[in-house]
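New to this. Help decode both lines:
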Amino acid sequence: MLTSTEKLQAAVSRFGPDYTALVFSRYQKPPDTMPKAAASTAPTLCDVTNYFSRDATLMWLRFHVAETFAFLGIYDTASKGQILQTAELILDHEVFSQLNLHEFLLFLSRFKRGDYGKIYQSARPNPQEFLQCLRPFWNELAEQRILAHQQEEERERKRREAEDRDLCMSYEEYQEIKMLTNMYNPPKPYEQK
């Protein structure tokens, strides 16, 4: 089975870098929960920039920001400059650029559902409000990543302990082996020379 990165590289060879950046989000359904998104091996926004170009990543972001604005019914009042600047601010942010594609798509799904409250009371889009909603999402994601890391460390610790138990014997096991050894190999009587 191919990893997300390998799928992305395969898509590039087939469609070219600019089109692939748009297609990839439709390539597979993003995870629907935070733990699944945090565990996803999808490339980050920075990875997409490194594999292709900044323009390809911005095109992917612009497409999804515009799609979100259209869903909210405010696309017609959003300028191309607002959409582009929103995409640039996400990509240029030191934290938000570390979101993988699945995490960002999960954020957009939650944003559309209204998980971060009713954002647009007016017909004019406010990209600042959109970006502010990324903060609580990032905080929740960071907690999820820490939890996943701790769970992985705990699984590794238990695995090592199980290996150690398999390699070591208890005092009771030692006593039993000693008794059986003495039973089948009794000590020889002391002989004087």
